[in-house]
Amino acid sequence: MKLNVFIKSALALLLILMAGICGQKAKADTVPYFMLINQSSGKALDLIGGNMANGAVTNQWTADYNGPNQRWALSPTPLSNHFKLISWVSGKAVSVSNNSMSTGAQIWAWDFTGDDPGQEWDLVDAGNGWYYIRNVHSGLVLDVANASTADNAMVQQWTNVGSPNQKWRLQPWGNYNIKAASGKYICCQGGGTAGAANGATIIQYTYENNPWFKWLFTSEGDGFYGLFSLNSPSRVLCVDQGSSAAGFNCHLWDYNPNNVGDQKVRIVPKLDGKYKFYFKHDGMSWDIPGGSVNNDVPLQQYPDNANSWQEFTLERADSTTQTSNSIFSVAASSIPTPVGAGAISFRVMNGTNGAYPDSQIYWGVLGINPVNGKWSYLDINGNLQPISAALNDAAGHLVKNGVNYANIYSTISQKQWVNMPKLTSGRMFISTGSPCYIKTYDTGFAGPDINNPADPNRNIYFDFIEFTLNDSGYHGNTTRVDMFGFPLQHRLVNSSNSYDHTVGENESETRAGIFSEYQNEVPAEFKSLGTVQAPYRIVAPIHGSFAAGQPNANYFSSYTSISTQDILMGVGGAADPNVCAAINRHVYTQPQSTWGTVSNYYNAAPANYYAKFWHPHAIAGLAYGFCYDDVNQQAAYLEVGSPKGLIIRVGG
Questions:
Q1: Which residues touch 383 (CB under 8 Å, ≥6 apart)?
Q2: CB–CB of 69/11 below 8 Å?
């Protein structure tokens, strides 16, 4: 989360109030706002500097979802024959400077007069959800001068030549309620837990101020968007079975970036102020069957027609807190380009829902610098600094129980994005409320040891990710092999935005909820793992009652002669990844040809029910619950060549 999100939000509110007092703008709280993103540069139309004067320049700037200068209300003109674009900040309209008819005329903001065609625009379909934005007076279109990719590059009007620097997509900003022509609202049937489950039917229903009525639009490539439910932030509205048949219901399902297109919609604004939504995979429209006005009527897909029940109203919801806290709210196009060959831009987001401020969420990155082969840590400026024993006593070092420790940490309040160069054998330690206490040496470091009752991190809330960033790209994962500290989401985006995957616990999961669900869902042998080091963590079996000499030390003995400890650690008789995975999943005695059938996993004891627990609570069911959980691609693992952005979200 940005250092200045709260400051910016307060400033935006102040500007809104000032504009209202001055009579410059009248904005209902539910008015939909959009960011206008250019296809060529990936940057957004921006009221430069938040200038509220007539003639303020509107150029392009790096897309910033939390930046009020990039929010524009798209609404019909008074005669409902064209569109106007009104700034969130100033209430002024996107206009052609001096009402010019010439190519190259600057675009600026000016008081909306209501009858000036130089302030009126048509949206011309450019394919795949992109639009040319054509001025009614001149017939010319919005154009980034010289196809520049620089911040503050001039946005002008120009003859439409069909080039990418003339194409724009409409990124909805904020959370939305979506109203059908019946006056009912689109929501997840059953609400609460039922409305958050895979397969929950999408229906229309009388409005309620609940998260299962609220939706977040995220960019899914070109001008297509995923609709994430705020009741289950890792699940999206899609067509049942991915069908291309007319009349199929819509339901909620785990987000899959490689879906056939049934999880992606194109938004088409209408001149009556409403919107149509079309699925990418088959081009069909959202449809309320027969225009019914009843509750519990499912949302379906149907071929486009002129019926009013295929049009919907977007109403911006009353809260954007969840929007800015969601890992999916970060537009891939807004990720800064990393500096240096093979580098990546990364950020850590605060998803603790107010439990911790940004200044109390710490991160520290350790790994081997491939340039010199030395163990190093990453500083806030994106530089790798060598570690050593002397670092424990350096200026600013940490102290706990009279012992000095190296201070390798930054907080997310210090900087939103950090540039990270290539690093091998990397670990990112994340903690809340306090940094971790780690001893550094000339040849490595001593990380937290949760087996040691005297370890200074036993009473610290922490977690970590593992990764390597090298010539072939980024390779990393969240892990529950040792423990669970708090929910983590891990998102990776490549330089072309064609790879955009997220793993980790579902965003709807809370820390307290995980602890409670764990006790309710695992058998008796595994329950103590959730209490032995509570409230700080749930430990893996090998760190609890399944270790040698403990009550469950021979847990797997009725199933195999391989020791329980070897099975849990993937060593000795269980060193073969496939054997280790098969025993943990209780498919070892089945024909080996069936070991890849996921539905057979964990169906009987003995099995690693600690590992099983994490899968249904994770995005797309992927989790690293034991050392070889990557067998058959079940692990929360991400890798891509030419990486651009890494985002880690800390849940609360």
A1: none
A2: no
pLDDT band at 4 (very low <50, low <70, confident <90, very high): very low
Q: Which H helix or E strand runs over 524? A: helix 524-527
* Alpha carbon separation from 238 to 195, 268, 280, 391 (Å, rounded): 14, 18, 11, 52
Mean pLDDT throughout 555-560?
98
Return the number of other C-beta atoms located less than 10 Å from residue 244's C-beta. 16
Task: Report pTM.
Answer: 0.57
- Please determine, for residue 1, whether its predicted confidence score (pLDDT) is greater than 60: no
Across the range 49-59, mean pLDDT stands at: 94
DSSP state of 626: S
Strands 398-400 and 384-386: unpaired
At 482, is the secondary structure helix, strand, or coil? Answer: coil
399: how many CB neighbours lie within 10 A of its CB? Answer: 12
The H or E element that residue 365 is part of is strand 361-369
Other CB atoms within 10 Å distance of the CB of residue 245: 12
Joined tokens for residue 552: 């469950």
Both structure tokens of 618: 């994770």
Share of the chain above pLDDT 70, in %: 94
Predicted confidence (pLDDT) per residue in 64-102, tens digit: 877 789 999 999 998 889 999 999 888 999 999 999 999
Tell me whether strands 643-651 and 344-351 are parallel, antiparallel or unpaired.
parallel
CB contact at 8 A, 202 and 251: yes
Q: Which uninterrupted H or E stretch holds 124?
A: strand 121-127
Q: Which DSSP string do the residues of 183-241 spell out, in sequence order?
A: S-EEEETT-TTGGGSTTPBEEEES--SSGGG-EEEEE-STTEEEEEETTEEEEEEEEGG
Mean pLDDT score, 599-612:
97
Structure tokens at 404: 């000095």
Q: What's the count of helices (H) and strands (E) in the chain, helices before strands?
A: 7, 44
CB atoms inside a 10 Å sphere around CB 357: 15
End-to-end CA, the chain: 14
Buried b (16+ CB within 10 A) or exposed e, 576-600: eeebbbbbbbbbbeeeeeebbeeee
Strand partners, 57: 108
CB atoms within 10 A of CB 448: 21
Q: What is the mean pLDDT of residues 176-202?
A: 93
The encoded tokens of residue 379 equal: 């500083």
For residues 651 and 484, what is the distance between their CA atoms, to the nearest angstrom?
Answer: 12
Calpha distance 16→25 (Å, rounded): 8
Q: Above 60 in pLDDT, residue 21?
A: no
Could you tell me the pLDDT band of residue 335, with boundaries at 50, 70 and 90?
very high
Q: Alpha-carbon distance 52 to 23, whole Å? A: 13
Grouping H, G, I as helix, E, B as strand and the rest as coil, residue 16 is helix
Helix (H, G, I), strand (E, B) or coil at 446: strand
pLDDT in tens, 393-437: 999 999 999 999 999 999 999 999 999 999 999 999 999 999 999
Would you tell me how many other CB atoms lie within 10 Å of the CB of residue 26?
10
What residue ranges define each of the domains in the chain, with the CATH number in brackets? 5-172 (2.80.10.50), 175-325 (2.80.10.50), 336-509+617-652 (2.60.110.10), 514-609 (no CATH)
- 3-state helix/strand/coil string of 295-355: CCEECEEECCCCCHHHCEEEEECCCCHHHHHCHHHCCHHHCCCCCCCCCEEEEEEEECCCC
Predicted pLDDT of residue 29: 55
Q: CA–CA separation, 518 vs 612, rounded Å?
A: 11
